[in-house]
Every structure is written in structure tokens, then in C-alpha cells.
Automatic annotation (TrEMBL):
InterPro entries: Cu-oxidase-like_N, Cu-oxidase_2nd, Cu-oxidase_C, Cu-oxidase_fam, Cu_oxidase_Cu_BS, Cupredoxin. This is FtsP/CotA-like multicopper oxidase with cupredoxin domain. Residues 86-190, 226-309, 377-493 form the Plastocyanin-like domain. The keyword 4Fe-4S does not apply. Keywords: Metal-binding, Oxidoreductase. GO terms for cellular component: cell outer membrane. It comes from Paludibacterium purpuratum. The lineage of its organism: Bacteria, Pseudomonadati, Pseudomonadota, Betaproteobacteria, Neisseriales. Signal peptide: none annotated. It is found in: Cell outer membrane. GO terms for molecular function: copper ion binding; oxidoreductase activity. Coiled coil: none annotated. It is a lipid-anchor. It comes from the Bacteria.
């Protein structure tokens, strides 16, 4: 495969197949709103082009070395997006996205969630190596008016770009599209790229109705996954990024969308990939003209100003993920502004040839197979659709697979559905061993840590992984509407 064009990379119990209309009526909190599409806000009415604001950070309340202690309050927040009046979001600490959490590998973490919503919620520490009981699983929902403290220690070697978001039974999709998500950076004690100016870009979906309020999911959203009119960058619409005078930046990019794939391009420039979900690569991958981030994935890039003399545009190009209906158009993400009078005229030093060592996990002692599938039929004039894992919809009371703590395993994940599905495994990172599409092997160009991997229709991906704590782990499609509609399973680690 040509490296320059390489594309990187719960919950319905006992419903059998579901009618979208019946489901919306039966579960008004989880799946609110019309079965058909409602009128949406004209995209031109949402202002754009302001300078990217500094992202708020979660303040460490502890004075003890090696302990990060803080509070996240989940509550409604009124944000003045339009001149006609504020838009109500749900947010952590009133911030969109939630405040950025920064810790160092080896730290102890204590974060208290205070739930001021009218729904139960959790915090899932997406991708982080934390025990099952601290990972915000749907079994451990925090009721309205209640609080819960998550406690875990982050081991040395887990530096990377993670994120946090809700994972309550049936309600995760709505809570995320209403604004509940934030970045979580685990910093290395020794970072080979520490001297490069850094920028965090959390990209999220926004769908507003004609009144400027967050629109509920309609039947198309539950079928395909939600894609609104806007892609926000750190909560802003198409902001301007004032590039560093050094002429080089390190970008951490999060795909915090419910379903939107981000085919990132910076026309006229190339990207150097240096990290994926679970941290740095062994060697920089230079000269990429685009990179695909599936929902839930993260990546780190080095971006050089080079010889540009224009305003660069970061865009999400058209990507056909096989959904029913129109393919999403290209979306502008941000404008990159370079003040060449301030950029250093000296040549930029080369990046390190080697960033980190990624060890092999060892010889596998067990194998598992996971199959994503979907089926749709018409019943009484309504679409009836199933999203399945190994032929079954999610059941909170059923264990689908079992593993032993410490055992190295190879998982074979096959997508037999008609559209792309991103596979996410809780509590650990994994290494992609191989990919196969329509009987043809696809080369894996480098070793990397992942917790989410995309599968095209008809594709099979093999991964190597290991779980370190006993308990229940979730594995599911990270299109949040599909997760809610059954495309999830439970792994019991003993």
C-alpha cells in the first residue's frame, strides 16, 4: 500500500430486532425525537473564523506529589452560540469539550463524578489501562444527584492521548452528542518530542435544529450513526490556528464524533504521523497526504509550515463508509494561519529516527473471533434493523467471551455488515497483526498501539492483546448509535 495515501487507522437487551419507530417511542430518554428528519439550522448562521481559544484544563486539587485529584460535574450548560439565544448542552464543568486532563505516567488518579443530569451516567476512561470496576461500565451507572470517585494508577509506559466520555446503558449516544467528552493526556517521563510546541484538537459533531437547539436523533441517525451540519474544533466552528513561530507543531487529534469519520487532509502540505491511540510509534511516518480517524480514535502528527505562503485549510475529505443515503460532504475543520515574518528562517532539525520501543506482547495462548453484522427488513412500513455481534444483540446479563488475566490472545474481528464499523476493546491497548479485505492481504505498515480499529465492509482484522485485571470488559462498535442498538458484547476476565 502507498504510504502517502495510507488511511490510518450496548446495549439493547432482549429486543430481537427493533423497529426504529417503536424503539423511539418505547425509550424516549435514550432515543428521543422524530422518526423522520426535522428542519435543521442553516450552517451559515453559526459564526466561524475566530482564533482558537485555549482549552480549559482540569485543576489538580492535590498538593501531594504523584496524585492527581479533581472533580467533574456533569450538568446542563447554556452556551451563547447564536444571537437568538443560548443553546443547551450537557457538559463536564460547563466546558465544551470537557476540561483537558493532564497527568504523568505513574501517577495515582482520583476523579469524582458529580451527576447533576436527569439521567444516570458514568465516565469511561477510553483506552486507559484501568481496572474494570473503575472504567465506567454500563453496570456501574451513577444515578442523578449522586456522585462516585474513580481511583486508578497509570503504569509507566502508558503515555498517550486518551479521552473520557459517558457509557451508561442506552444513554451514551445522547450524552456524547449533547457535549459530554474530554481529552486525557498521559505524559511520558521522557518524551523525545517534548521540545516541539503542542496543540490539542478535539473534533466533535454538532447537529442543531432550526431553533438553534441540539436536535434529537432521527431514524437515519439510529440507522447510520449521527452526523450533524458542523464539525467543531475544541467546541468552536472552523477556528483559526495561529501557527507556532518555530514553524513546527505537534498536534494531538481526537475523533470524538458519534459516527463521523475524519479523513484528515491539509492540502498543499503533508503530515508526519508520530502516534496513535496508545502513544508514540517506533519511527515517524512522514509524507502522509491524508489520514483516516474512525470514531473514537486518536492520532499525533508533526506539522511543518514548510514554504507555504497561503492560509492552509485542515479539512475532513469525503469518505464513503457505506452508510445508507448520501455520503457526507467535505467539511472544513480549521484555518491554519502562518505569520512568516515570525517563523524562524533556519532549517528545522530532523525528527528523531526512533521515538520509542514497542515490545511484542509474546506468544498467544488463546484465539477469539468476533463478527459484526447487521440486517434490515421492512415490517408494517417501518425499517426493522439489527446490529449484531456474533449473531446476537447486546444483553447486559450475558457473558459473550471469557479470557484469563495475563493471557496473550489473538482476536479475529470480521465485518460482515454493509458499512464500516470501528471495533473498540475496553481496558487495554492492542497491536494490529494483519488485515484482509475480499481475500486480499493488506500490509500493516508499522507497529502501533490501538484501542479502536476500523473495519471496512467485508474486512477481517487480527489483533494481539492481553487483559491485566479480572472483571467484565466491553467490546463494541464505536458508532455510538450502533453500540446502543445492540452491537456490543461482554468479555469476562478471570
Amino acid at each position: 500500500m502507498d504510504r502517502r495515501s495510507f488511511l490510518g487507522g450496548m446495549l439493547l437487551s432482549g429486543l430481537g430486532g427493533f423497529s426504529l419507530k417503536t424503539l423511539a417511542e418505547t425509550l424516549p430518554q435514550a432515543m428521543p425525537g422524530p422518526v423522520g428528519s426535522a428542519a435543521l439550522l442553516d450552517p451559515a448562521l453559526l459564526s466561524a473564523g475566530a482564533d482558537l481559544a485555549a482549552m480549559p484544563k482540569l485543576i489538580n486539587e492535590s498538593r501531594q506529589a504523584g496524585l492527581f485529584k479533581a472533580t467533574l460535574i456533569a450538568a446542563p450548560a447554556r452556551v451563547p452560540l447564536l444571537s437568538t439565544g443560548p443553546t443547551e448542552f450537557w457538559a463536564y464543568n460547563g466546558s465544551l469539550p470537557g476540561p483537558l486532563i493532564e497527568v504523568t505516567e505513574g501517577d495515582n488518579v482520583e476523579i469524582t463524578l458529580v451527576n447533576q443530569l436527569t439521567q444516570p451516567t458514568t465516565i469511561h476512561w477510553h483506552g486507559l489501562p484501568v481496572p474494570p470496576g473503575q472504567d465506567g461500565n454500563p453496570h456501574d451507572a451513577v444515578a442523578p444527584g449522586q456522585s462516585h470517585t474513580y481511583r486508578f494508577t497509570l503504569p509507566v509506559g502508558c503515555a498517550g492521548s486518551y479521552w473520557y466520555h459517558p457509557h451508561p446503558h442506552l444513554l451514551a449516544a445522547e450524552q456524547v452528542y449533547r457535549g459530554m467528552a474530554g481529552g486525557f493526556i498521559v505524559r511520558a517521563r521522557q518524551d523525545p518530542l517534548a521540545q516541539i510546541p503542542e496543540r490539542s484538537l478535539i473534533l466533535s459533531d454538532l447537529k442543531l435544529d432550526a431553533r438553534g437547539q441540539i436536535a434529537p436523533n432521527d431514524s437515519d441517525d439510529w440507522m447510520n450513526g449521527r452526523e450533524g451540519q458542523f464539525v467543531l474544533t475544541n467546541g468552536q466552528n472552523r477556528p483559526v490556528l495561529r501557527f507556532s513561530p518555530q514553524g513546527r507543531e505537534r498536534w494531538r487529534v481526537w475523533n470524538a464524533n458519534s459516527a463521523r469519520y475524519l479523513r484528515l487532509q491539509l492540502p498543499g502540505s503533508t503530515l508526519t504521523l508520530v502516534g496513535t491511540d496508545g502513544g508514540l510509534l517506533e519511527k515517524p511516518q512522514a509524507g502522509l497526504e491524508e489520514y483516516l480517524l474512525a470514531p473514537g480514535q486518536r492520532a499525533e502528527f508533526i506539522v511543518d509550515a514548510g514554504q507555504r505562503r497561503d492560509l492552509a485549510k485542515l479539512v475532513s475529505a469525503v469518505y464513503d463508509r457505506g452508510k445508507m443515503g448520501d455520503v457526507a460532504p467535505e467539511h472544513p475543520i480549521a484555518i491554519l494561519s502562518v505569520d512568516f515574518s515570525a517563523v524562524s528562517a533556519s532549517a528545522l532539525p530532523p525528527l528523531p529516527d526512533k521515538l520509542v520501543v514497542i515490545p511484542d506482547l509474546g506468544k498467544p495462548v488463546a484465539h477469539k473471533r468476533v463478527v459484526f453484522s447487521e440486517s434490515m427488513s421492512m415490517r408494517n412500513g417501518q425499517h426493522e434493523m439489527k446490529f449484531l455481534v456474533n449473531g446476537r444483540q447486546y444483553d447486559m446479563n450475558r457473558i459473550d467471551l471469557k479470557s484469563r488475566a495475563g493471557d496473550v490472545e489473538v482476536w479475529e474481528i470480521a465485518n460482515q455488515a454493509d458499512m464500516d464499523h470501528p471495533f473498540h476493546l475496553h481496558g487495554t491497548q492492542f497491536q494490529v497483526l494483519s488485515r484482509e479485505l475480499d481475500g486480499e492481504a493488506i500490509a500493516v505498515p508499522y507497529k502501533a498501539w490501538h484501542d479502536t480499529v476500523n473495519l471496512k465492509s467485508g474486512e477481517t482484522v487480527r489483533i494481539k492483546t492481553v487483559q491485566h485485571w479480572p472483571g467484565i470488559r466491553m467490546f463494541h462498535c464505536h458508532i455510538l448509535e450502533h453500540e446502543a442498538a445492540g452491537m456490543m458484547g461482554q468479555l469476562k476476565v478471570i
